[in-house]
Amino acid sequence: MKETGFFAEFRKFIARGNVMDMAVGLVVGSAFTAIVNSLVNDIIMPIVGLLTGGIDFQNLQIVLKPATESAEAVAIRYGLFINKIISFVIIAFAVFCIVKAINKMREASAKKEKAAAAAAPAAPAPDIVLLTEIRDLLKK
Mind listing the pLDDT tens digit for each residue in 66-86? Predict the structure, then answer.
């Protein structure tokens, strides 16, 4: 029995090679995110805190309701949000640099191919080859 509809389309999608590339990208992206989070939390934010007079951004918050014995405090943790923004900017910058490098390599490769195509003489058309052969035979 032939599958049709949603599941057949899904099976076709999974069978493509692009799905594996995407999965590898997600795994590498997750690892990269962990590295960037460590960079922001362990290196950049202490320096920013030092420059701002020892403020620890992770502890910056607005308490809406203080903690009680039975409930945790309700707070807006804008310091953590600032950390996330810095992480995003660093990740965006890193991705920009990677894409820029890839584009530069592609342009260099395209220039090499174009130069090679220009340096190599173009093959004559088949009718020109035939006429040349006929001319050479008539000369004999």
Answer: 999 999 999 999 988 988 888
Residue that is written with structure tokens 């943790």 in the block: 77
Tally of domains within the chain: 1
Q: What backbone torsions phi and psi does residue 16 show, to the nearest 5 degrees?
A: -70, 155
CATH number of 41's domain: 1.10.1200.120
**56: DSSP letter:** -
With bands split at pLDDT 50, 70 and 90, how would you rate the model's confidence at 126?
confident
Which helix (H) or strand (E) element contains residue 12?
helix 6-15
Domain with 104, as residue range(s), is: 6-139
In a domain, 118, yes or no: yes
Tokens of 28: 């590498």
Contact 102, 95 (CB under 8 A): no
- Asked if residue 1 is part of any domain, the answer here is no
Tell me, rounded to whole angstroms, the distance of Cα 79 from its chain centroid. Answer: 27
Establish if 14 belongs to a structural domain: yes
- What are the distances in angstroms from CA 38 to CA 25, 32, 79, 87, 88? 20, 10, 16, 9, 13
